[in-house]
Amino acid sequence: MRLLIAFALVLGLAGLAYLAGRARGNRMVTAAGGRMGAVHSRPVYHGAYVAVLALAPALIVLAGWGIVGEGLIEGQVLGSLSAAERPAPGNDSEALLNEVRGLVNGDLPQAFNPLAPRLAPVYAAARSNGDLLAGALAVALLAMGGLWGWSRLRPDFRARNRVETQVRALLLVASVVAILTTFGIVLSLIFESIRFFQLVSPVEFLTGLQWSPQTAIRADQVGSTGAFGAVPLFWGTIFIGAIIAMAVAIPLGLMSAIYLTQYADPRVRKWLKPILELLAGVPTVVYGFFAALTIAPLVRSFAVALGMTNASSDSALAAGLVMGVMIIPFVSSMADDALAAVPRAMRDGSLAMGATPSETVKKVLVPAALPGIMGGVLLAVSRAIGETMIVVMAAGLAANLTANPFSSVTTVTTQIVALLTGDQEFDSAKTLSAFALGLVLFVMTLILNIYALAVVKRYREAYE
Amino acid sequence: MATLAAPAGPIAERQPTDWATPAMRSRIAARYRAERNFRRLGAAALVIAASFLAFLLFTIVRDGWTGFQRTETRIEVQFDAATLGVDPAAVAGPQGQALLARADYQALLLKAAEQLGPADDTLSDAAWMDLREALMDDPTLLGKRASLWVPVRSSIDLLAKGKYDLAAPAESRGVTDREVSDWRWLDGKGLLRTGFNTTFLFGADSTEPELAGIGGAALGSLLTLAVTIAIAFPLGVFSAVWLEEFAPKGRLADIIELSINNLAAVPSIIFGLLGLAFFLNFAGMPRSAPLVGGITLALMIMPVIVIASRVAIKAVPPSIRDAALGIGASPIQVVFHHVLPLALPGIMTGTIIGIARALGETAPLLLIGMRAFVTDVPQGFTAPATVLPMQVFLWSDDVQRGFVEKTSAAIMVLMLVLIAMNSLAIYLRNRFERRW
């Protein structure tokens, strides 16, 4: 909260700096007899220049304090304890610091840890000192930057060019965030995966057939030792996302696209297309709820009617069916694009030879558009295997290696969620395995995407 | 035509096809039949997709609309100062309200429940709050009798809404004989009524279905989205501007473009892993906080905004840039005075679609701990909070029968907001987008 106030204060002061710079610019124009051309830059640019010089260092200080401040304060608070009293780093320290924070903020009427009441004043003092220091530094830098900028303003000062250079730098920085995000994803996945692979061999992970990540946390605990063979997970992911879901989505999506582009009356199309797109806009958690509560019991009773006694209530079929429906609009719009890219002359030629529209579609359009459609299907597969909520809610947790759609399988995403919700111990193989699964998922979707996009691109170029 | 090329060898004379022969007729009929069937197949695909959507919406609305209602029963309350444990003289004093806020309403409620006879265990655990509210609104009630409508337990509520199959055997219908007889007794006496459930719209989560609300989650969504918009919108638009207008052709621009295209296809749960590993574990930011959720979702939807903004910026004709440059505007002025205002409708459309996606997203937030059980509205950007889709997920996991209608009702609210946002995007596109 205090940081927000500091930000508001700094922004307000920067506003003042802007007004001061602009006023000076205005005075220079007046001094030149009101002729705008006598001053290189317009007054607003003088104002903006001063404001930027004032704001930038102050913001950097405040943001820096916001990021590292808590850590510094915690170090100081823990450092005030004698070595014997100091709790072990990790959970114990964290719990103690949480109590101290609770006491200081008044959320916690009474602490459990006897150390907490003693540390509370230390924490409060460190916090207010630090906040004050950071605030003072920010304001001082703001004043210095503002004054220096203000002192540089002259009629021939090229304020506009400076401001524009700064704006360009800002645009570049904004663009670089995308690279940083990609790096952040890759680094965090690889970093945690390496820690996992120090505990479990990659070969076992990628080829093992047993998945039971429950490891004994205490030494005396009777439990499974943990097996990290992820093949059943990969199979479950492919079974639900690439086989069952695609068996629903490809025929329905492709036929919808063909009907909409080749047959439907424009008025009908105007209504049908948004309905189809609505399917893509439904949140996945809603599909998950629907799959778990409505479709899964239906599938189960169907299986029982077929004479299966061990039909699972979280079958692969229920999750796959609903996921397939979710993917329909995606496949349909990819197929739509691919069909539209086939040169009109080919379609017209076929029709002119006497082929019926369906013969044209089956023998000319679809074969010609096949690479584009296949690329779209691959993109759809990549989306399906990364889909989380439907499988978390409707697929099971049992890692079965089975091709029976009525039995329960588990997927990579389901396991990631199951492993990372609840108690986390960041040095256990159980928690770290989620990151290894994430890495596999990331690499798999990346390869699918790059390959599919290349296919689609080559296909488009073939007809251009 | 015949004169164009002399045939190399003798070709067989071919008679023109006689379309009237039975063979040709049946062949044509077969082809036309195939044509009709194919067309029907296409229509069937669309009908199947649409009916699935209709079935989904129908199920949600059928199960969910009763979630906006709650069943209440009438009790006569004697606001007895002794039972409440307050001193009537002090209540009139300046500390009166504070005193009333702390009084013992549970005891009062227990006493009042006795008049319900056999059905004295049917009131909601939080019914005492209604007594407190009534008394604090009107302190003169102290010592008087008043007739109040208070919520009943979830099981009675569901019985009144007809959610149980009473013909089923007792062990499988999910409700005890006692509850059924209590409900029959109350209903027979005309003590039940159905009212609009304001608790559901404005309250926060609870372990009791009749007290649970989506207000807390909705506010959490609002806080999270505020962070998301504040980060993703400027970043997305700025990087689109840079890529479209200023990026020199070269490796840097290629890498940025590749990153954005890849990020757009990365599964959302991977962003959750990033948030967990980087923001929570590395940077030490608070768990379950709208701040972290907002940043994570911002990184997720930024590519959507960049791609939409680039399309919108690209659609602004070059003649406008040339004209502005020609009368002496600098490249930055061209962009900020001319290109961006003209591209704004397209940018807004893309942004709203991105935000709608962020609003419906659950998976990444699951990993950064936004599945917290929060019984109060979130207190700020760094306090634990939950969001609407997460509330749906949490309730759908709950074994209590009463949460089924709450889940569906929450989905209805979520879907209404999403449909409103998407309609706004379509409206903006149709109303303001200019075509050159």
Keywords for this entry:
heterodimer, A: 464 residues, mainly alpha, MetI-like fold, 2 domains, two-stranded antiparallel ribbon, 15 helices, 1% strand, B: 436 residues, three-stranded antiparallel beta sheet, 18 helices
Number of extended strands of chain B: 3
CATH level 3 topology of the largest domain in chain B: MetI-like fold
SS element count, helices of chain A: 15
Instruction: Give the strand tally of chain A.
Output: 2
- Spell out the CATH superfamily of the largest domain in chain B: MetI-like
Strand order of the biggest β-sheet of chain B = 2-1-3
Low-confidence parts of chain B: none
Order of helices and strands of chain B: HEHHHHHEHHEHHHHHHHHHH
Principal-axes geometry of chain A comes out as flat
Largest interface: A-B, 89 and 85 residues
What is the CA-atom radius of gyration of chain A, in angstroms?
31 Å
User: Roughly how many Å apart are the termini of chain B?
Assistant: 46 Å
User: Which spans of chain A of ≥5 residues are poorly predicted at pLDDT below 50?
Assistant: none
**N-C termini distance of chain A:** 58 Å
Beta strand % of chain A: under 5%
Please list the strands of the largest sheet of chain A in the order they lie side by side. 1-2
Q: Helix fraction of chain B?
A: 55-70%
| Average pLDDT rating of chain A | 86
**CATH first level of the largest domain in chain A:** Mainly Alpha
